[in-house]
Amino acid sequence: MSFLLEKHYTQEHQIFRESIRRYFEKELTPHVETWEKAGIVPKEIWQNFGRQGFLCPWLPEIYGGVDADLLYSLISVEESAKTHFSGFLFFLHSDIIVPYIEAFGSEEQKHRWLPGCATGDLITAIAMTEPGTGSDLAAIRTTAVRSGDHYVLNGQKTFISNGINCDLVIVVAKTDPGAKPAHAGISLLVVEDGTPGFEKGRNLDKIGFHSQDTAEMAFVDCRVPVKNLLGQEGKGFYYLMKKLQQERLMTAIGAQVMAEEALRLTIDFAKSREAFGRPIGHFQYISFELANLATDVELGRTFLESLILDHMEGREIVQKVSMAKYWIAEMLNRVVERGVQFHGGYGYMEEYPIARLFRDARVYTIFAGTSEIMLLIISRYLGL
């Protein structure tokens, strides 16, 4: 694998890696099948994970974190891939949603919510997608009308990850439906679980990510205190665009480490599975195909690590991150498809990890912006 990040790792990083690896082996892996069948990871796991210091380690100490760098998040996702379990989507909370509160929240909001986000007592979600609106955020229909010291929120959301477990949900809504351009009327409201008019719908039945609770949501005359407005009114679209670089970088990291694990499993199987008196990895076709996949995985890792360094240095790399999210997600799906094929009948069996990776990989070309949207973003930077 690439060594671009090697010189940036410290002894503290290694201690963290060993600690979280042991945690996953002891506290997660033995329970995966139970949670997959239940369709949800218990909230106690989030709290336990947070008490170990594994949630939001990048937060400043004043808000409950340890002011760690992005490499801790990378390590967490790398080690989680070895569990062959995608249902505990902690990096969505830690590295995609909570950063909105830290970056755009008031000091009062930060002190009110961030410590609980770090301990796992407050699980977060972000509600963008609506039944009739996916990537086109400017077309959302959810509205938030000011009424005294509250906003009256009305609308529906769907495909919301952490939608059942969440204690806080950042809702994308229009506070000025008549704004031109339309995105200038979008704001972000933090809705707390239990707020009258906030209804969590069913836990959606997905192809993969079975234990990752994904829900529908409804807001019916839901009165949200004005003090729960995140940042400034009308700036929501700007905030979303500002944070998409890290969201797509983290998604690319998730896809990359899953591809690496799928390749490792397939190579191990090709070494041990025999046909016609020899390991199947000795057949030229399979060895060449694995060589192709290994090359793709190595290219993905090298590109990704260069982007991690750029992002940590504060550079704007929207086009390159879009390239990474697009290419690595598509590459992951090539790897798991070949992995299942080379496992033969065993690849179709749920007891083999490659089967779950195959199911779980598919969504990476869809969430955090589809592959088609990534290509659109990339093309705009080409000056066409």
Our count of domains comes out at 3
The number of E-state strands comes to: 10
Q: How helix-rich are the residues, as a percent range?
A: 40-55%
**Largest sheet, spatial ordering of strands:** 1-4-5-8
**Alpha-beta content class:** alpha+beta
Global geometry: globular
Describe, in short, the structure shown:
This protein is 48% helix and 15% strand. The chain has eleven helices and ten strands.
Descriptive account of the structure:
The chain is α+β, with helices and mostly antiparallel strands. It folds into 3 domains: 6-122, Orthogonal Bundle (Butyryl-Coa Dehydrogenase, subunit A, domain 1); 125-232, Butyryl-CoA Dehydrogenase, subunit A, domain 2; 238-380, Butyryl-CoA Dehydrogenase, subunit A, domain 3 (Up-down Bundle), CATH 1.20.140. 48% of the residues lie in helices and 15% in strands. It contains 11 helices and 10 strands. The chain has helices at residues 11-28, 32-38, 43-51, 70-81, 90-104, 107-119, 236-272, 284-312, 318-343, 353-361, 371-380, and strands at 124-127, 143-147, 150-161, 168-174, 186-192, 198-203, 214-225, 229-230, 274-275, 278-279. The strands form 3 sheets. A 4-stranded mixed β-sheet has the order 1-4-5-8, covered by helices on one side. The protein has a 4-stranded antiparallel β-sheet with strand order 2-3-7-6, with no helix packed on it. Strand 2 and strand 3 (150-161) form a beta hairpin. Helix 9 (318-343) packs antiparallel against helix 11. The mean pLDDT is 95.
